[in-house]
Amino acid sequence: xxxxxxxxxxxxxxxxxxxxxxxxxxxxxxxxxxxxxxxxxxxxxxxxxxxxxxxxxxxxxxxxxxxxxxxxxxxxxxxxxxxxxxxxxxxxxxxxxxxxxxxxxxxxxxxxxxxxxxxxxxxxxxxxxxxxxxxxxxxxxxxxxxxxxxxxxxxxxxxxxxxxxxxxxxxxxxxxxxxxxxxxxxxxxxxxxxxxxxxxxxxxxxxxxxxxxxxxxxxxxxxxxxxxxxxxxxxxxxxxxxxxxxxx
Length: 248
Known about the structure:
It is a single chain. By secondary structure, the chain is of the alpha+beta class. Among the domains are: about 5-95, CATH 2.40.240.10; about 100-180, RNA Polymerase Alpha Subunit, Chain A, domain 2 (Beta Complex). The protein contains five helices and 13 strands. It has helices spanning about 15-25, 45-50, 115, 195-205, 215-245; strands spanning about 5-10, 25-35, 35-45, 60-65, 70-80, 85-95, 100-110, 120-125, 130-135, 145, 155, 170, 175-180. The strands form three sheets. Strands 1-3-2-6-5-4 form a six-stranded mixed barrel. Strands 10-7-9-12 form a four-stranded mixed β-sheet, with no helix packed on it. A hairpin with a 6-residue loop joins strand 5 and strand 6 (about 85-95). It is elongated.
């Protein structure tokens, strides 16, 4: 463990103090551990980012120098702004080198599966991390599994892997790590040519309206004349009837 970062004890607290600290390139942090008093610290942001970008990432073991004291530590958790991705706060945990700890280790694969190169499938990472227990010095950077013998719809489970010496796997044995799957094909319904034409016509049709039968203007005029003649005839009949009554 050759990496050592320097830390300063914090004297100012609150939102304004934390804001000023971040503007100066530092990050608020705490260091705690079993049987130890929690210490509030200020870390150099560059040191934290350097640890996170290393091969072991958050599982990196390092030393924290606090004034004249040096402690073995790891990053326990991070607080990051969801909008700007700015590092807001870091939790460090003191590590005892002679006591086993539990950490999450990334899973990777080697080889090319038969189900991929010969059967048209793809590699689906169902679980990307494993929880393991070991001494701090035995923490692996990753756990690699060979998938070259996998066919379509075959998988590798937690129980199928052999962890490195000194490492105990805590994750559920039946959990699937990697699965070879067939790409999902979109089903498109084929329509017959006739059905497409009918559908297009039906879409453009307007609701039918019940219309009164139109009568041409000339026919309407003739009908009106006929009605007038009938009225005149009726009037003539009424006059004749009146004359007959008078003569009687």
